[in-house]
Design brief:
The protein is α+β, with helices and mostly antiparallel strands and 337 residues long. It has eight helices and nine strands. A hairpin with a 2-residue loop joins β6 and β7. α4 runs antiparallel to α5. Keywords: Membrane, Transmembrane, Transmembrane helix.
């Protein structure tokens, strides 16, 4: 029998160039049947991943809190160190290391007992003193008297301050009882005043024009600073403001009139200043509320007279009225008079 019929030819279906895939963990590579062939390794693709941080960012506030906590811990450690040092000192004093335990314990106990005994004695002696003091207070105590509250006075004598403007003049004053020339002086507080001026040049010019002897007169600078004078506190604010405005205008009127009389000042300025002062006069009814009506009304009368003399060009009468107005300013003292 021919055995060839039972012979089957076998042909390999795998190509000679096939390779074997080898994987170990995440790594893999291909290897061929021949050991001399090069192994090609497959590298896994690299993936960039961004993960969210689980820790919070450090801010300035957090940093300050950490610093504060660290400082508190440091201070606590320092205090604890001081207390430990104090205990160690006390322990060394009461229980020295070189001595026997029995003797050191006895001495430490005696020291602590003596300290406690002193404290108890001090407190014991204080108790009778406190008791005696309380008893004395109870024996000699005075019943409380009801408090008397005095009501504040609401009488019209309550005062407020009013501003009086300042003035500055030069006086031509008589130096003796004998009069010279045709000018007649005005008697002011026992002094004989011939004229007013704003400057010494104007005063000497008046002396020459009036024919006054230099040996019988003297030139004196007088300055009245601004001041506050008391008036009744019941006056209303508008009346007080209007009176202060009128006093300021009156002082300007006297200066302008004096400049026209003695210093060659402008006539128009004197006329305008006198007109303004008279127009601002508050009135007798308002001045009565201030409690100083006679003093203020005297100044108003001097201004009215000076304005009349100025209108009629009577220089001598205008000078006398200006001197009188100046004296009213000097003598004004408010409610103190």
């Amino acid at each position: 029998m021919n055995d060839t019929r039972f012979h089957r030819s076998y042909t390999s279906t795998r190509p000679s160039s096939s390779s074997i895939l080898v994987r170990v963990g995440e790594r893999s590579w291909h290897t061929s049947q021949s050991a001399s062939e090069t192994v090609a390794e497959d590298q896994p693709p690299r993936v960039l991943t961004i993960e969210k941080s689980s820790t919070a960012p450090i801010t300035l506030r957090v940093m300050r809190e950490r610093i504060a906590n660290a400082q508190r811990e440091q201070q606590a450690r320092e205090r604890s160190k001081h207390w430990r040092w104090l205990l160690e000192v006390c322990k060394d004093m009461l229980f020295p290391a070189g001595e026997k335990r029995l003797w050191s314990g006895l001495r430490g106990g005696l020291s602590i007992g003596m300290a406690l005994g002193c404290i108890v004695m001090i407190l014991f002696h204080q108790v009778p003193l406190l008791a005696a003091g309380q008893a004395g207070d109870a024996e000699f105590s005075v019943p409380p008297t009801p408090a008397v509250v005095k009501a504040q006075s609401t009488s019209p004598q309550t005062r407020v301050a009013m501003e009086l403007p300042g003035l500055q003049f030069v006086l031509v004053e008589g130096n003796g009882a004998k009069q010279t020339g045709s000018e007649k002086p005005v008697s002011i507080n026992g002094k004989q005043v011939y004229a007013l001026a704003l400057t010494k040049t104007g005063a000497h010019s008046f002396i020459r024009s009036a024919g006054l002897g230099s040996s019988h007169v003297q030139v004196q600078d007088v300055q009245l600073p601004a001041k506050m004078v008391p008036v009744l506190g019941t006056v209303d604010k508008p009346t007080l403001n209007r009176t202060e405005q009128w006093l300021s205008a009156s002082g300007s009127a006297l200066r302008s009139l004096t400049a026209w009389l003695s210093d060659g000042g402008r006539e128009a300025d004197a006329a305008m200043a006198l007109h303004t002062a008279l127009a601002l006069y508050p009135g007798d009814s308002r001045l009565a509320k201030m409690g100083v009506e006679p003093q203020l009304h005297a100044l108003y009368k001097a201004l009215v007279a000076a304005n009349g003399a100025f209108v009629h060009r009577d220089r001598a009468a205008a000078m006398d009225d200006a001197i009188q107005g100046f004296d009213d300013f000097m003598s004004f003292g408010g409610l103190n008079m």
